[in-house]
Structure of Dihydrofolate reductase family protein:
Amino acid sequence: MNSDIAETIAELKQHPGKDIWLYGGAGLIKTFITLNLIDAYRISVYPVVLGSGKPLFENLRERLELKLTDTNVFRSEVVQIIYESKNQ
């Protein structure tokens, strides 16, 4: 199944158009990270502290090397940090 995902993304990248936006849970994101299919990470931080929850990235086998490329602060006090993958 993972090879199908990698092949589909490679095919999509050959077509003109906009970026591919991945939005999903930890399992889906982990699959794309493992297959080295993510070029940029847009992480939004909300001004709420929870006592518990799921990790943002769980059970990764290797360290992700990221480079900060931009930040955005919204009126809602949400902060968005944007990183590029150094592993590309």
